[in-house]
Design goal:
The chain has two domains: 250 residues, 2-enoyl-CoA Hydratase, Chain A, domain 1; 34 residues, no CATH class. It is 47% helix and 18% strand. It contains 14 helices and 15 strands. Helix 1 runs parallel beside helix 3, helix 3 packs antiparallel against helix 11 and helix 6 crosses helix 7. The N and C termini lie far apart (68 Å). The model has no long low-confidence stretch (mean pLDDT 94).
């Protein structure tokens, strides 16, 4: 066919805040397939645990639109640079220094955030979240908007909203219970407990947890997790909790002896993408969209009112919580919750005096 194909991209964009790569698809024999690709979208802010800035959010929206429209793309891999974090959510430095106390500005930001989630849910290609490290807060939310998640077994998963002055209304209150059930969603959303990759797999949050720690030339299981010997049909442990006390110290010492090699994670992601290659594309897309409806039912019902509330919250708890996280000393980046509750019980208004009084010292 010689006729030039029409571009349906909104704009043509050179990405600077994220990385966008086309990687050649692999067939069942592991050979490259000429002319067919998987689009890899990388968050690229490893110094700040791949938190997304406003500019990065804009680029993620355009990247998913570009991958969705690309006729040669089979699947999208959403991941990040490095081995410490997939994403820890919005950039708290930007939140604290620009958006705190400016609800109208944050409302505009949240429109972009909502469009980012929607761009993932509306992508015409299957989306695999390659979880290369911690997936926390807004990182958990953009990860759950994806269709599949395959994780390093060193990754951890969780929410942070009520601890740092927000609510997980960027998707977790819409999606999390669909994955793990209402009781566990309550625990994660309110208590901000952290799950290991093996817990996440056992709870149904992710498809696979992959060993990436190499010690003495061999890949070994995450030494920071204990397992209770529940095995699947292949004999693989599918459940694990974080170690505590002396066992945790020993686990960290063992971890320090090894090196992290994400090639097994890449292999698992590529294997998933290869499975998707051998499916009818339109039937695959229809199935994705039918199953995504369960997420979209909640997301479309709540996203605008959540945006309104999150913006107003920038005048009170978010203003305090993000400032505490940004300004507090390492190991103490939360407000003084007891003093906060006492001052509110005494009828103190939400003002700068209250916020200054509860800042971590």
């Amino acid at each position: 066919m010689n006729k030039k194909l029409v571009s349906h991209n909104l704009v043509e964009k050179d990405f600077t805040e994220i990385i966008y790569e086309l990687r050649t698809c692999l067939d069942n024999a592991g050979e490259q397939v000429k002319g067919l690709y998987n689009a890899w979208i990388f968050l690229n802010n490893p110094k700040q645990y791949n938190s997304y800035t406003t500019e990065a959010v804009k680029e993620i929206i355009l990247a998913f639109r570009q991958a969705s429209n690309d006729r040669s793309v089979v699947a999208v891999v959403f991941t990040a640079v490095g081995d410490k974090a997939f994403c820890t959510g919005g950039n708290t430095k930007e939140y604290a220094e620009y958006y705190a106390g400016r609800p109208l500005e944050y409302k505009q930001y949240m429109r972009l955030f909502n469009d980012m989630i929607t761009s993932i849910l509306h992508c015409d290609k299957p989306v695999i979240c390659r979880v290369n490290g911690m997936r926390i807060a807004g990182g958990q939310e953009i990860g759950m908007a994806c269709d599949f998640s395959i994780a390093s077994d060193l990754a951890v998963f969780g929410q942070a909203g009520p601890r740092h002055g927000s609510a997980p209304d960027g998707g977790s209150t819409d999606f999390l219970h669909l994955y793990v059930g209402i009781e566990r969603a309550m625990q994660s959303g309110t208590l901000c407990d952290i799950w290991s990759a093996y817990e996440a797999k056992n709870f149904g949050l992710i498809s696979e947890a992959v060993q990436v720690l190499k010690v003495d030339g061999e890949f070994v299981r995450n030494p920071l997790v204990v397992t209770d010997r529940w095995l699947d049909e292949t004999g693989e442990v599918v459940y694990g909790q974080r170690k505590v006390g002396k066992d945790l110290v020993a686990g960290k010492e063992f971890l320090a002896k090894g090196t992290i090699d994400l090639s097994p994670l890449d292999g698992a992601v590529n294997a998933m993408a290869t499975k998707l290659l051998y499916l009818m594309p339109d039937c695959l897309n229809k199935t994705l969209n039918s199953l995504r409806k369960k997420k979209l039912e909640h997301w479309d019902r709540n996203q605008q009112s959540n945006r309104d509330w999150l913006a107003l919250n920038m005048m009170t708890e978010a203003k305090a919580g993000f400032r505490a996280f940004n300004e507090g000393p390492k190991g103490n980046r939360v407000v003084d919750f007891i003093k906060l509750r006492r001052m509110l019980a005494e009828g103190h208004p939400w003002d700068d005096e209250l916020i200054d009084a509860i800042m971590p010292k």
